[in-house]
Design goal:
This protein is mainly alpha-helical and 174 residues long. The protein is built from 2 helices and no strands. Helix 1 packs antiparallel against helix 2. The radius of gyration is 63 Å and the shape is rod-shaped.
Length: 174
């Protein structure tokens, strides 16, 4: 029972106790001073007893409020701890996903790099082979052109020498 329910009840009892002697005085003719004093002492005792009950009710209410506060505080701590655990779990999962995505991206980039490197190396080798083949073809053509030129020059030389001998031989006949 809370303080609001107990306090009116205790007050009502104290008022009833205090009202009884007043009612009794009104119903009966005036009594002796000692009888009035005795009734006043009883009323005062009832009043002090009611005050004690009110103080007890306030103390019980205070204890109940303290208990309710402690329960609310404990519940709030439990909710807080659960929320913190959940937030940490979400954080850890997010970090794991992010790390996994990073690792996958790195692996794909390394694979793409490896493929590009292999293609570049192959293109370089192919280019070297083509360049070497073109060089060899150029050398072959230059050598053939040289040999053809030397052969023509030799042939021309022979023709010129033969003509010179013919001319010389005709002059020597004369």
């Amino acid at each position: 029972m809370d303080q609001r329910e107990q306090t009116p009840k205790v007050r009502g009892q104290a008022e009833q106790q205090a009202a009884k002697p007043v009612e009794e005085v009104q119903e009966r003719p005036a009594a002796s001073l000692s009888e009035i004093l005795s009734r006043a002492e009883k009323a005062y005792a009832a009043y002090t007893e009611a005050q004690k009950e009110v103080a007890k009710a306030y103390r019980l209410s205070e204890l109940e409020a303290e208990k309710a506060y402690k329960e609310s505080e404990q519940q709030a701590k439990s909710v807080r701890d659960g929320s913190l655990r959940q937030a940490l779990k979400v954080f850890d999962e997010t970090v794991d996903k992010t790390t996994g995505a990073r690792d996958e991206a790195i692996a794909r980039a390394e694979l793409a790099y490896k493929g590009a490197k292999e293609q570049a190396e192959k293109a370089c080798r192919d280019s070297e082979l083509q360049t070497k083949s073109a060089y060899n073809e150029n050398v072959r053509q230059v050598l053939k052109a040289y040999e053809d030129s030397v052969a023509r020059a030799w042939k021309k030389r022979e023709g010129t020498i033969e003509q010179a001998w013919k001319i010389y031989a005709k002059e020597g006949e004369q």
